[in-house]
């Protein structure tokens, strides 16, 4: 079943060229006629170099940004210009996990308040009370529930990202958009968070849009991959098609440029290096 559908979505930003305020305004196309669908329960990755339009596409898909042209449909409803109740329902069903957990978590709120906030916005009382609900969510994402009264700064980067994931799960979303959600983490922590994301999807059956520039990460998580270049999707296919039989020249260049590091291989490689050094 198709959950989300972007149809020929274009986003133009009006910018000024060099010369400051006196320079003439010009429209810059950050996303150019992008179309794709996401089915319930699947993971679609969007990859591409910095500036290719991935985040802008994600923000439009989450209705954090309005497209200049094109439509966004969710469960068959056009929500491009939705307001009021239908927008509120959409905002409940689609959650976003951002790259930098520390800047996306309120530093003055306890974890309990952060992860239960999405329910408060919707005017829903957490089942079993706030405390119990927060503890349960923390356990689900592998955090110690006894730390529910701590503040974000008291957690490591990987743990803070788990708080962001717990907050996203609080309202039982149908789609979670991960915008470079593991990019800032060390490789070993990245692998743990990816395992968590995969487990949560297995348990709850929601979909992911997984934005990343790291193809090795995408290979571990995505069923389908869209490759973006200069605002356009240049290739979209199953993970194996994209990685093993890329057709587009840009996809081939992108694949060739990235070292294909699997965290497990990386761990073994480092272990091997250490053993090798020790034996010299
Ligand atoms: N609010 C804005 N005003 C003007 N230009 C913008 C705005 N937001 C993004 N852009 C431009 O649109 C283009 C696409 O940006 P976007 O952040 O979507 O790319 P990206 O692929 O996600 O890159 P990155 O991985 O670096 O975030 C870039 O050239 C960026 O400078």
TrEMBL record:
Pfam families: ABC_tran, oligo_HPY. GO terms for molecular function: ATP binding; ATP hydrolysis activity. The keyword Transferase does not apply. Residues 4-255 form the ABC transporter domain. Coiled coil: none annotated. The keyword Repressor does not apply. Keywords: ATP-binding, Nucleotide-binding, Transport. InterPro entries: AAA+_ATPase, ABC_transp_ATP-bind, ABC_transporter-like_ATP-bd, ABC_transporter-like_CS, Oligopep_ABC_C, P-loop_NTPase. GO terms for biological process: peptide transport; transmembrane transport. Belongs to the ABC transporter superfamily. This is Peptide/nickel transport system ATP-binding protein.
């Amino acid at each position: 079943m198709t959950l989300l559908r972007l149809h020929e979505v274009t986003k133009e930003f009006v910018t000024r060229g060099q010369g400051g305020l006196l320079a003439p305004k010009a429209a810059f196309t950050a996303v150019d006629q992008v179309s794709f669908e996401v089915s319930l329960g699947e993971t679609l990755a969007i990859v591409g170099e910095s500036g290719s339009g991935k985040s802008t596409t994600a923000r439009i898909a989450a209705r954090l940004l309005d497209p200049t042209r094109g439509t966004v449909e969710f469960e068959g409803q056009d929500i491009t210009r939705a307001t009021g109740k239908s927008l509120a329902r959409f905002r409940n069903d689609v959650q976003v996990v951002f790259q930098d957990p520390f800047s996306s978590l309120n530093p003055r709120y306890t974890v309990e308040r952060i992860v239960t906030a999405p329910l408060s916005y919707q005017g829903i009382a957490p089942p079993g009370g706030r405390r119990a609900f927060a503890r349960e969510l923390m356990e689900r994402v592998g955090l110690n529930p006894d730390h529910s009264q701590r503040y974000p700064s008291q957690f490591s980067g990987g743990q803070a990202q788990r708080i962001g994931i717990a907050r996203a799960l609080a309202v039982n979303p149908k789609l979670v958009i991960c915008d470079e959600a593991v990019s800032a983490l060390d490789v070993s922590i990245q692998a743990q968070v990816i395992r968590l994301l995969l487990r949560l999807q297995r348990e709850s059956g929601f979909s992911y849009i997984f934005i990343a520039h790291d193809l090795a990460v995408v290979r571990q998580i995505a069923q389908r991959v869209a490759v973006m270049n200069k605002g356009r999707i240049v290739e979209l296919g199953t993970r194996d098609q994209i990685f093993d039989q890329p057709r587009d020249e840009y996809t081939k260049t992108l694949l060739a440029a990235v070292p294909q590091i699997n965290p497990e291989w990386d761990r073994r490689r480092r272990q091997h290096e250490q053993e090798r050094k020790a034996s010299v």
